[in-house]
Amino acid sequence: MEVNIGLLGCGTVGSGVVELVQKRSEMIARLTGLEPIITRVLVRDSHKSRPVVFKHEQLTTNASDILEDPEIRMVIETIGGIEPARTFILQALRAGKHVITANKDLIAEHGAEILDTAEQVGMDVYYEAAVGGAIPLIRPLKESLTANEITDLKGIINGTTNYILSKMTATGADFDEVLQEAQDLGYAESNPASDVDGLDSGRKLAILASIAFHAKVTLDDVDVTGIRTISATDVAYAHELGAVIKLLAEGTDRDGNLSLQVRPTLVLKDHPLAHVSDAFNALYVRGDAAGDLMFFGRGAGSLPTASAIVGDMIEVLRNLRMDTALRVRHLLLPHKRVRRGQGEPTRYYLRLTVRDQSGVFAQIATIFGLAEVSMETVLQKRSSHETAEIVIVTHEVGQEQLNQALTTLYATDSVLTVHNVMPVTGGAQ
Which EC number(s) does the record attach to this protein (predicted)? Predict the structure, then answer.
């Protein structure tokens, strides 16, 4: 039995979906008892040359040809962005069509609306490809680990920034140089802001936290810091301290109080995330029953993303075969609250430029002592005849105490610049 599918968008990801469905259609039919047929494809230009071959009648520039076709049972959205993708998905659901999307921006901002609509009309929405490309993250959190109370998420979920930081570590080059190389190779967009400013990771963390912590979370709930301020100097000091710098997305649930952060972090080399390099992604998950788990793989690309989409498509086909839907509901617990700026105590790395004169370090030590911030490691090097550079790694400290110390440092004449402040993870933590 054939199942007709409509594809919205046929760019890099959409073409990968078509390629994979054509390649695996016989296997999918044997697995599910249903044969997937992509009957219509929404494109901007039906005459454009594409890496996959279509019959002319398959292509359309009018979304209604898909959304209003009663023969189409499933819609796959690969357009990206908020609109018109949101409108198309809601229209498809209300027309009785199951939906698969890879649209992280849309799910992060409007996921609750879309999932509520799907439940009201009895249709399924799958979005495994929205986070982590080929890495199975959404389904394990929604299904395999549901017997657990998930307390911690920590991971590298943006391949562009991980590539940049990995190259900076390997070559000693500075941020701007490596960013340009990443753009030349196609690893970074011409406008890289979403990636390097941490917004892409923030949206993905919002999606993961919504599922893992059973809470309504959007990007506005995530404290986000990007990697533009990371220099080759910071990378070198990290190496000296036995660490590498990674852009980590972290979420914790402590008795219903949620903390969600994306920020550059010194990851000591004894932590598994320290060894996730180049454009690879990884997510560390802690559950009260399962313990510690880590998922690893390629987080982007045409076929890795298509792999996740086609995996979702197979789930929809199985549901159609069994005449069922909404097997896994999206649970929201009302007592969950996001507490911004209230992360758990941790160690911190600070890099300062100070006047090279006697008594300055004693002054800094006094500032830290008054704020109840203790120092674990100190590195001091002369930068010029008049300045010195000091790197401090603290013992575990709360955000309030650290902010108190920083406020005083900023106002101290002998402290010329506070270059970077980053958390440290790994080691005895």
Answer: 1.1.1.3
Note the pTM of the prediction, 2 decimals: 0.93
pLDDT of the residue at 47? 78
| Cα–Cα distance, 97 to 89 (Å, whole number) | 9
**341 has pLDDT over 80:** no
381 is known as an active-site residue: no
Residue 65 Cα distances to 5, 39, 43, 75, angstroms: 12, 11, 12, 12
- All structural domains of the chain, each given as residue ranges with its CATH number in brackets, are 2-133+302-321 (3.40.50.720), 138-298 (3.30.360.10), 347-425 (3.30.70.260)
Q: Which helix (H) or strand (E) holds 235?
A: helix 232-240
Does 113 belong to an annotated binding site?
Answer: no
370 marked as part of a ligand binding site:
no
Task: Indicate the average pLDDT of the chain.
Answer: 94
Tell me: is residue 19 an annotated ligand-binding position: no
Helix axes 104-121, 199-212, angle to 10 degrees: 30
Catalytic residue among 167, 204, 246, 336: 204
The Cα 57–Cα 369 span in angstroms is 74
48 assigned binding-site residue: no
